[in-house]
Each structure stands twice: as structure tokens, then as C-alpha cells.
Amino acid sequence: MVSAMAVSATAAGDVFQAAKYAYKSGKLELETSSINELEQLISKVVAATKKKSVSVIIPTYNEEGNVGRLIDSISSAFSAAAVKDFEIIVVDDNSKDSTPQVMDRYAASGAVASVHRIGIRGIFSAIMDGVRASRSDTIVIMDADFSHPPSKIPEMLGKVSEGFDLVSASRFVNGGGIEAPIMRKLATILFNSVIRLVMGGIVTDWTGGFHAISRSKLLALDFRYPAKWGEFDLELLYRAKKAGLKIAEVPFVYNFREEGKSKSAESVNFLFGYAWLYGRRALQLRFGR
């Protein structure tokens, strides 16, 4: 594992932020002090190798019980759909369990690209770092805890091939659902109902977190608010609609995590702090800038 190092301060008086990236894919290993440098290095690799048809981005933190099984499951889903030229990018925020070792074992076999981030945390920034390091024109974003079924990915990509810029998996369209403890289920349904009322009828599921999207369209979106947890989902969907992206939804059944603990539940109380965080972001987007 690489060690953290201070990289830069943008202005006098700024606090130095320790941040370092390590990218590993097959026998390729790159270490850089910034994601921009990492992307430049990877772009050279892309120029010398075949681009991928789809990149699956998975942010992780302490997911040793899930990450290996998820990589296998995604690979199986692609194999069943006869998709061969894909890549799986696991972006880890310096997990304290064996997640880094598991992802590196897969990277050594050529099955994944593993990106280690040291000194920086957050789901949204991890996703965007994975996107910038990707080698395809189509991105799939999903969680590492099996709440998002890999078997749905081919269906989502089918919608992309039909001409949709953003395909969002929804728990609230016909065929979707939630398998979770009753209080969590009721809170999710109630909360999404309120969010839909605030945001308008763009989509049915504002917090699903399972998407397929054009890489170039995603990077062109004008994100204006920092996001540490899943509140980025609201801005992604809102900005996509404002930018005129063609959006489709497909159903999926959310399954409460099988292994480990929910990062959002660890960080904020689900019924109060979590709802406040998302509610405030919805109001900022709908009535702010």
C-alpha cells in the first residue's frame, strides 16, 4: 500500500491535503499525486490499447465481504450478455479491512482496475475519479454492497444503445421494489415521495444510486454542490434533466446489504440526519442556483 503524501496548497493559508492515488490494472501499476496526472497517464495507456465498451465504477470502503463476489457477479452478468470488452474500476478510500488486498488480487489477474485513494474520502469524488480514469464511453455507477443487482446492467446498457444518455434504475416503477427492514423501507418510500414533490416529475427514484450514463455527458454536467454521501444522486438527475439529456428508467429490486455496514447509516442517522441532508440538497437544487 502506498503511503499518503501532501501534494499542494492552492493559496497561502490553505491547509495541505494529503492525497495520493495508486492505479493498478493487470501488470500495470501507476502512482501519482493527483487524479489529473493519473488520468493523463491512463490516457496514454488507452491510446496504446483497445478502448472498452463499458466501465463499471464501484466506490468502496471496508467492503471485504462484498467486493470480490461483486466483481465475479458483474463479470458473470457480462459473460451471459456476451459482453467481453468491459472494465470494472474499484475506487477505494483507504479501507481498514482487507478490501485493498482483495481488489489488488483481482487487478493482478487483469479482471479489474483498482484505484487506491489515500487522504481523500467521499462517494461522489470516488465515483468521479473512477470515471476520469475510465477507458470507455459508457459508465455504470453502482454500490459495492449488492443492493444493486449486476444482472440489471445488460438491460440498462440496452437502453443506452437505444439512444438514452442516462439510464437510472428505479425501485418505484413497475417491477421494482425494496427488500429491507420495514422501518427502512417505509422511510425510503416516504422520503422519495417528498423528494419527488419538491423536485418535480423528472424521475421516480431520486436516491437509487444505480445508473448507466454517457461518460462525456456526465463529465460535462455542471455540478455545483459538494457531496460526501448519496446526495450527489439528486444533483446528477437534476443537472441531467436541465442539460437536456435523454433519460430512461428501468426497474430494480433493492436488497439491503448482505455484508458489512451501511456507510450512510454509520455517518448520519438515517431517519433524521440522512433525510435532512438529502432534503436540504433537494431544496438547494430546486430553489437555489
Question: Topology, pairings included?
Answer:
Elements: E1 20-25, E2 28-32, H1 35-48, E3 54-60, H2 67-80, E4 86-92, H3 99-108, E5 113-118, H4 123-132, E6 138-141, H5 153-161, E7 166-170, E8 177-179, H6 182-199, E9 211-214, H7 215-220, H8 232-242, E10 247-251, E11 253-255, H9 263-267, H10 270-287
Parallel strand pairs: 3-4, 3-6, 4-5, 7-10, 8-11
Antiparallel strand pairs: 1-2, 1-5, 6-9, 7-9
Helix pairs in contact: 6-10
Description:
- α6 (182-199) packs parallel to α10.
- By secondary structure, the protein is an alpha/beta fold.
- The model is unreliable at 1-17 and 259-268 (pLDDT under 50).
- It has helices at residues 35-48, 67-80, 99-108, 123-132, 153-161, 182-199, 215-220, 232-242, 263-267, 270-287, and strands at residues 20-25, 28-32, 54-60, 86-92, 113-118, 138-141, 166-170, 177-179, 211-214, 247-251, 253-255.
- Strands 2-1-5-4-3-6-9-7-10 form a nine-stranded mixed β-sheet, with helices on both faces.
- The longest helix is centred in the middle third of the chain and has 18 residues, at 182-199.
- The chain is globular.
- It has one domain (20-287): Spore Coat Polysaccharide Biosynthesis Protein SpsA, Chain A, CATH 3.90.550.
- 40% of the residues lie in helices and 19% in strands.
- β4 (86-92), α3 and β5 form a beta-alpha-beta unit.
